[in-house]
Design a protein that fits this description.
Blueprint lengths: L1 H31 L14 H24 L4 H23 L4 H22 L1 H7 L2
Length: 133
């Protein structure tokens, strides 16, 4: 289980890098109107929801990376806070603005990821060792 936990922690770091880049690219498009590589804005979301979307994505990626590098002992709790906010936002986006049936599968998958990652950060020995240093 130790190797799997180490791999999962590395995957969370990679996920955080992707989230930070994606969030910053989304903010760039949001404020400038210029598409970075592909269109990131979802026209189904109102402007305020879109702003919160990019804010939470950027914060989630950036906070985890900084906390990971600093070995901050409160990282699991900070991430639970961010994951719960992302889950609420995802619920709003899915049930208030999406019409595609696929979005329900994506919604459930996302919630499972948030809960699983939160449990991992709280209970994994690898996570406890890394964030207690």
């Amino acid at each position: 289980m130790g190797i799997a936990s180490k791999i999962y922690l590395v995957l969370l770091v990679i996920y955080s890098v992707i989230m930070l880049i994606w969030g910053l690219a989304g903010f760039f498009e949001y404020f400038s109107g210029i598409k970075p590589l592909i269109k990131l804005q979802n026209s189904a979301y109102p402007s305020g929801v879109q702003f919160v979307h990019w804010l939470l994505i950027s914060l989630t990626g950036g906070v985890f990376l900084v906390c990971y590098l600093m070995h901050w002992n409160l990282t699991p709790y900070a991430m639970i806070l961010l994951f719960s906010n992302l889950a609420v936002l995802c619920t709003i986006e899915t049930f208030d603005f999406m019409s595609d049936q696929w979005s329900l599968k994506a919604y459930i998958t996302e919630l499972i990821f948030y809960v699983g990652s939160s449990l991992f950060l709280i209970y994994s020995e690898v996570s406890k060792a890394h964030f207690s240093s």
